[in-house]
Amino acid sequence: MHRVSRNGGVAESFPAVQARAGSEPASVPAVSRRRVSAGLVAGAAMAFAAGALPGAASAQQARPPSRPRTPSPGLGDLTRFNDSIVRLDAKVPEDATSAQSLGADRVGTGIILDERTVLTIGYLTLEADAVLVTTASGKRIPASVAGYDHKTGFGLVRSVLPLDGRPMALGDSDRVQEKQRVLTLGQGEPEATEIFVLSRKTFTAGWEYLLETAIFTFPPVNNWSGAALISVDDGRLIGVGSLIVNDAASGQQGIPGNLWVPVNLVKPIMADLLAKGRRGEGADPWLGVTTESVRGNLMVVRVTRNGPAETAGVTPGDIIVGVAGEKVTDQAEFYRKVWKVGPAGATIPLKLFKDGDVRDLSVKSIDRADFLRKATGI
């Protein structure tokens, strides 16, 4: 089994994904979550109270102790969420588009929403032929992919038989604020872990992905892939684990943490995902181009084989300098201006620095869902 990691060098046992602008998750052996020590959590709390963030050096020096962690007062029974968490094993055909970067065998966490519906991070089940759900009691139940949304990154799974776990209610992720303490729980863990919200900020990645109000937490945990981010106040789900990153803070570099997709993003599209397998509204245009900021320039580092960009003549090494007559300098500007042109299917006028010359190139966009192999069940 594999987890997904964006840096290609994580240790042993769970789908790990580290953010790196330039590629989608690469398949690597998984790493089990390290328990967060009470001392590290307390230190973070003191830093927050003082209006400062822990530095990269102190974060790197923090090592989980062998002694059991003592939770902060007022958290209640940290095992009370265990029945809402499941393990997901997804099997993807070797020839699927995503198999090269994400692997054909993927393992991660899902959160029970009702007796047959599980919410997870979408890359775990993307193009999957079969999904196996293992509940906290150890029951193994066949399932299939119910829906996937590239824009948010969410995925839904439906089990063949009712699950014996307890559904977790969706909370209000818009109310999540910096310095707020929260809980996280992944599959296979004995109890939830206390962490803190470090920032709410925009996140972009090279695979045409942008979240305007992503949740970033500290200290970093390794068992994040599809894990639950839970409100301490009401015990509701407020985010789903996506990545481990090295820039979780606002205004400071080198602060590691985790990225969580806010659950309010799935609420408007839940019905469509369950009924149609995808969002009902017009999808954003997809070009099949992976970009990375290099010395202040937005460089193409990869194009998807047979994708719109490659078909139009975009090649690795090209520098994107404009979209539809407007200058772009970073990924966020690039995505927003591409998506402003029109829905999937729109022709996107690009200005590129290519082979020593500035050239205009038009790319006929598509809906990414139409390019990928449709998962069994959708």
Q: How many H/I helical runs? A: 7
Secondary structure category:
mainly beta
In oligomeric terms, what are we looking at?
single chain
Walk across the major sheet and give the strand order.
3-4-5-8-7-6
Residue share in helix: 10-25%
Averaged pLDDT, please? 84
Instruction: List the secondary-structure elements in sequence, H or E.
Output: EEHHEHEEEEEEEEEEEHEEHEEHEEH
Major sheet description: 6 strands, antiparallel, barrel
User: Overall 3D geometry?
Assistant: globular
| First and last CA, distance | 23 Å
The fraction of residues in strands falls at 25-35%
Low-confidence stretches: 1-68
Radius of gyration: 20 Å
Tell how many strands the DSSP assignment holds. 20
Topology:
Blueprint: E1 3-5, E2 26-28, H1 38-49, H2 56-61, E3 85-91, H3 99-102, E4 105-112, E5 117-121, E6 130-134, E7 140-148, E8 154-159, E9 181-185, E10 193-205, E11 209-218, E12 228-231, E13 237-245, E14 257-262, H4 270-276, E15 289-294, E16 297-303, H5 308-312, E17 319-323, E18 326-327, H6 331-341, E19 347-354, E20 357-364, H7 368-371
Antiparallel strand pairs: 1-2, 3-4, 3-6, 4-5, 5-8, 6-7, 7-8, 9-10, 9-12, 10-11, 11-14, 12-13, 13-14, 15-16, 16-17, 17-18, 17-19, 19-20
